[in-house]
Amino acid sequence: MMNAEESSSSESSASPAGQRQLLSILPFVFSLLLFLALGAYQLRLPGLHYDEAKEAGLNAMQLVTWQPLTAFRDATIQIGPWRLPLMMQDYIGSLNVLLATPFLALGGVKVVALRGLPLLIAALTLLLTWRVAWRLGGPLAAAATALLLAVNPSFVFWSRQGIFVTNLTALLFMASLLTGLRWWGERRPRDLWLTALFWGLGIYAKLLFVWAIGAMGGVVIGKLVNWAIGKLANTPRSTQYAVRNTQSANHNPSTTLRPSRKSQIANRKSEIRVWLTAAACFLVPLLPLLIFNLRTGGTLTSIFGNLGHSYYGVDNTAYLANLAARLGQLRILLRGDHLWYLGGLFANPWAPWIAGGLVVAAVALRIGRSEIADRRSQIADRRSQIADRKSQIANRKLVLSPVEGSQIGESPRHRVTVSPCHRVTSWSPLLPVALLALMVAQSAFTVSDLFITHYALLLPLIPLAGGLAVGALWTGQGSAGAEERGSRSTGEQNSLCHSFASLRTSSERVDDEQRDATQHQRRVSHPAAGDASLRPAKPMRGYAQHDTVGSALLRSTVLIKPALALLALLAALAWAGGDLWTTLRYHRALAASGGHASHSDAIYDLADYLDSSGAVAPLALDWGIDAQVRFLTANRVQPIELFGYADLDAPDAGFAGRVGSFMEDPDSLYLAHTGEDTVFHGRVEALAALAQARGLQLHEAARFAERSGRPLFVVYGLVSPR
Hints:
about 725 residues; 3 domains; about 5% strand
């Protein structure tokens, strides 16, 4: 009976906690389902992009159907019966190929099956971003972050074509940020190893992941420097001298708690093993990249060959101009008016203002509470000093050393210490802002172009900053309340707090324990001295006014807290509502247009035409045709790219020789874009001139247009003039 009663009571007590946990998860589940609904709707649109097919679909299809692999730069590695590509571009690895293979094996060689991979990756990114927000700001911040990310138009439509933007990097970024926070707070080796592994995978996935590593490293260095400066600034020289004297006076080799030398050596060896394992975790995912460059040197050539001017003409020496362009793109990313190829331009004009306002308000509130906490701390420190002096005068008959006199009567509550725990989670909304700023600063340098799609990597940071700001404004205190109530560094919200506390060495912690024990012994040995901190503090001249001011500031903060919390929640809902409406408008436009330019669904019609006409190897005179046709026809149609990548504006010297061997075949078909959509210009004109020299004429065999009627693709043939 007793066991049954105890069991029922424990179940009843655990039930409310379980219900609260379930309720805190429900907002994320709602956001996830909403995102999947928005992301999966009409998933076949827009049309398959060249990069989607080239960087994953084509090779994955060849692996599934056991066809010969067409690898980039013919760089492959043999693993059992499989010949796997090392890289998809000089700076993009083949992770998407490996991940897409099971999707095509299960769903068939279809666009929807291929896009299922990036949609799942985006859902996992949403999960990890929510988890990071929970760790830094609690359940409300996590719920706001998840909702803002789930309805963000850039996130929704980039996730549908995630291979096009390599959205795998965003997942690895959020994963490394989460494990990095865990390691920084708890110092578990496995978190360090996972962070290193995610960093290596991120660089292999796409080289620009170094932006994320550089930003995280910059934040860590900044926090360490700030902590060191704060510790030195808040530790008086007299206190340092007193502590050193106390340690030397009470040092007893027989009772010391310092670890033995053997133990120190063992600990040092253990730390070295941990860091060596982390280095291995970082380097192992980079082995394909290293092998690729040993064979081809492609990545090194791409980087060092584009340091001054990139392939697309970006002047990397004009850093400030590039940075201004990148900052403009960040604003466009917040508004969402860059997805023109879906059929229109739509924006949430209030998003930049709401995002900036939330972060500024959260920081302003935190600064205000910090000022109040500092005033109260100064008053408490001054009272403690006066109480110590009174205690020394009252006990002047005792023979005390200067060190002992300064320590007697000191209350642990008033001890002059600077806990790093109070300097991290308090400013958690600024963590994603700092990461964002550092990544944007790095992005002004490029070896390709200032593509806004590069910002798929940092996109989750924007909702994360907004969600953390909402959480801070709703609670009204963040960790400022912790400063007033004392340290409450348990739980996940204070993970960063542990990071700075863990910077202290074991010997320093032992010294603190010895100093506390010594002070306690002195109080026991000299009961006459008493403890001044236990006596009621009397009003002090000159400090009552400051106390009144601090109380007034605190009361004013308490009064505006509900208003700020309500405004923050309404602002977040307005932001999310505007983004949701923008996303729905894009979906409606996409259903009508089918996509524009290189994203048009006209590519499906072209592939069907070539497949049904029996064309085996048509000749592509422009970029953006070959890979999609191969994938959509399961390699039954294999276009041959003859345009040459050397020059965007005119064909190279070898163009005539490459085309000439095919002009003898009257059944040869030539694929090109119409004028305004042409990427590599002059090829059609050069072909027409070569045909005329041979007594032939360029003939338009077929034309394919977008749903709007605007022509996009042209199929040419060569005929004899009548």
